[in-house]
Amino acid sequence: VVYLFTDYVFFFVSGLGFCYSIIHGPSNATVLAGLEARFNCTVSEGWVILIWLSNGNPVLTVINSQGAVETSERFTSQNYTGSNGFTSELIIHETQLSDSGKIECSIQQTSENGFAFLSVQVNGSLFIKNSTLTVKENKTVEIVCEAIGWAPAPDITWMTNDSFIDKSRYATQQSQGSNGLHNALSTLTLTPTETEILTCLADIEALPNPQNASVTLIFVNSTL
Known about the structure:
- It holds the Pfam family C2-set_3.
- Residues 20-123, 124-216 form the Ig-like domain.
- It comes from Eolophus roseicapilla.
- InterPro entries: BTN3A2-like_Ig-C, Ig-like_dom, Ig-like_dom_sf, Ig-like_fold, Ig_sub.
- This is IGSF5 protein.
- The chain is mainly β.
- It has two domains: 22-121, Immunoglobulin-like, CATH 2.60.40; 125-220, Immunoglobulins (Immunoglobulin-like, Sandwich), CATH 2.60.40.10.
- 0% of the residues lie in helices and 60% in strands.
- The chain contains no helices and 22 strands.
- Strands 5-13-12-7-8-9 form a six-stranded mixed β-sheet, with no helix packed on it. A five-stranded mixed β-sheet has the order 15-22-21-17-18, with no helix packed on it. Strands 4-6-11-10 form a four-stranded antiparallel β-sheet, with no helix packed on it.
- The chain is rod-shaped.
- The protein starts with a strand and ends with a strand.
């Protein structure tokens, strides 16, 4: 018999005298490739078997009577019992791009599940070919910033000294390699009137701070 309430679905099993449900399912996570990803699933008393799945494939089983059954070093767990129920924490070690997708915790005796999504991102390289560049008065120059091997494609912005440059002054092209990683080429066009430091910034959600590359633009007055 199934009774529906506002926040939970409780399953009453005839003859067993208990109910069980997923109280809190896992939450979405975004991490850099190579780092850990963690997901929590809290269930009420009465559960027997809890299974974690990654993109539909079982990766770890937790049995009430004996604990976690781990079949891969990359998928381990920690378990906690509290007043709110039993919590299983799935830990995915050395995350890979292929780990991106749906993460589920499932109670086998009810087929109830909770799910979240994992996004694994790659921090690629970023560089400007020259660290310094000399420009004469009234001369227009193009500064090229290249981002290689990112996932997803990074958001590119430019700064001069401590101020952001208007997007109309640079153009960014993106491409995707056969390995599923993304490249970006951003070209800034300007006519300098003074010596300044130009900085290219590349950002993705998993980065705490954008990666950056800089060039010092040395302005030479023709009257000198």
